[in-house]
Structures are given as structure tokens and as C-alpha cells.
């Protein structure tokens, strides 16, 4: 854990020596106290750095990108559509598989503020599953969820399970050093199921990604977690495309990876 140190002169001022303390160690201690603890450094526990952080952001311009989708033996198409308009945004991810149609649809709507994307509503639709949603009541400071009585607090920079895929590129675009090899970005991410966790996304540096139109160099970031029940997330961000994801892979607990690869 990181530590900060207080200079000795900041701790005790004007302490008077007491009688009967004659040993060298005690005399030294009294000298330090009488001198305002000059020269003594006391460790003070600093706040843990594992919590979410707020970063400068530069959101990308509007786009609609097509992806190849794969999950296990199933293959199909995906689309990510980003529509910022003034201080508002709408983000949509849709995945389709032949014979099944849409197997995944996620929609995030909200505002763009000093912390980047500020979701107001997140919708998650999956094949053969009921629709789930999360509502971010920013005035009340809480997030509520479909079919659940539990709530989560709204914290600055909080993201949903889709908006983080634009928030992370916005952070990288504002300051590429945030995603240099070894660096980490920490975001609070909320799902439509009601859970909220800090995602630590660690950069593994530049890697080559093979796309249909050729190879590109992209920054690879992987979510770090000690809990095997957590979603495993991995993205590759292309600096030449506003750090937008050219590849993404998500693995839910007890599920097969869902992978998106940019058609370009």
C-alpha cells in the first residue's frame, strides 16, 4: 500500500522535557519532541488506489461500425452505433446470428459531462431471457434495477456494461499515457443485474490485430480480477481510430467468450 510521510515539524510543537528521563534514547526522544519532531518521518496510510477514478475524456465523433461476431460455434454479425448529440448520447450494440436473429441488444443513453459518459438508462436484451434495465437517478444519487429492490449509489464516472466501451477510448484519446504498457484505468461498472464493481483494466501495450482489410497495431487492455465469478473483459483499442475497439472479448461466468472483430 502506498504511504505518505509527515515531516516531524508538523506533528508536535513546543513539547517540554520531563524530569527523570536520562537514558540516551529518552533524551533523543525528548529532543525531537521539544524541537517539534524535526527530522522525524511518520508513515501515514494513504487511501487505497484500487477504487474508481475520474479522468479527462475526449469522446469520439459519431460512428456506426460493423463487426464479425463469434460465440463458441456460433457466428454472426455485430454493430456498434455511437450517436452523440450536444450534451446527450445514445449507444447501441446489436449482435445477430443466422436462424436466431438478434441474440444480444444493449442500449445505453445518457449525458456527456466533465467525467465523460454519464449513463441515465441501460437496457440489456438477450435471446430467451427477459429484458433487464438499470436507471441512473442522478438527482437522487442512486441506480435502480428491473425486478430488484436493491440499489447502487451513483458515483462520478460510473459506467454501465456498454458505455465503458466508449468511456475507455475517450480516456485514452484525451491522454494516451493512461493506456501505456503497464498502466491501468479503473472504472466503476454496473450491470443490469444489479451488481457494481470496480473494473481495473490493465494495459499490455501495443499488439497486432488481424482484420479483414489488414493488420493494425492496437492497445490491448485486460480486466484484472481475483474473483473467478467476474466477467472477463479484453479490448484492443486502435489509436488511428480515436482509440475505438477493433476487437473485444467478453466472457461471462460459466459461458463461452463473446468476441467482436471489426470488419475493416
Account of the protein in words:
It is a single chain. The chain has helices spanning 24-34, 164-174; strands spanning 3-7, 41-45, 63-71, 74-85, 88-97, 101-113, 116-126, 132-137, 142-145, 152-153, 159-160, 184-190, 196-211, 214-224, 232-238, 244-251, 258-262. The model is unreliable at 1-48 (pLDDT under 50). It is 8% helix and 50% strand. A hairpin with a 5-residue loop joins strand 7 (116-126) and strand 8. The strands form two sheets. Strands 10-9-8-7-6-5-4-3-17-16-15-14-13-12-11 form a 15-stranded mixed beta sheet, with helices on one face. Strands 1-2 form a two-stranded antiparallel ribbon. The protein has 264 residues and is mainly beta.
Primary descriptors:
264 residues, two-stranded antiparallel ribbon, mainly beta, 2 helices, 8% helix, 17 strands, globular
Characterize this entry briefly.
The protein has about 260 residues and is mainly beta.
Order of helices and strands: EHEEEEEEEEEEHEEEEEE
Strand order of the largest sheet: 10-9-8-7-6-5-4-3-17-16-15-14-13-12-11
Query: Which structural class matches the secondary elements?
Result: mainly beta
Mean pLDDT: 85
Biggest sheet descriptor: 15 strands, mixed
Question: What Rg, in angstroms, do the CA atoms define?
Answer: 25 Å
| Euclidean distance between termini CA atoms | 44 Å
Coarse shape: globular
Helix count?
Answer: 2
The portion of residues forming beta strands comes to over 45%
Number of strands: 17
Helix content: under 10%
The low-confidence parts are: 1-48
